[in-house]
Each structure stands twice: as C-alpha cells, then as structure tokens.
Amino acid sequence: MIKKENCVAHVESNGNGYYSVYCEEQFPFGFFGEGCSIEEAKQDFIAVFEASCAQHKKRTGEVVEATFTFVLDESAIQELGVQR
Is 43 left (phi over 0), alpha (psi -120 to 50) or beta? Predict the structure, then answer.
C-alpha cells in the first residue's frame, strides 16, 4: 500500500477563466484535473485521482491512498482578483 497524507495540490489559471490542478508528489501514475471554475477543477482532480487509483489497483494489486490540500498558485489568485 502507498499512503500519502497532506499532499499539496496546486490550482492554477490560464488567465482566461480556466483552471487546472496538479500535484508534484511522486505517484506510480500521472493525473491532473481541469475545469471552468476552481471547484470544478478540484472535483475533476479528485475524480481522476480515484479512477487512476482503481486502474492501478486492478493492474498491480497495489492500493494507493492520499489526502490533498489545495493551494491557489499566483495565477489563480490573480484570476480571482480580476473576477471580483
């Protein structure tokens, strides 16, 4: 079992109201989330992570668990400032 706690998930903006979420922590698979809002991108990130965990378990038998803390990168903070 791979268990990671309090991994930082970075939320960034492309400057046009579209957001992506990524984690720099090492996992046995790659994943990220994206969406038209911060909340949508975070939900997509979690959904993709859970699907990737299920696929990894099916392929290898290994269980991967993690908790995430979402942090807004400067680009997302600036985008929020523009929207206010």
Answer: alpha
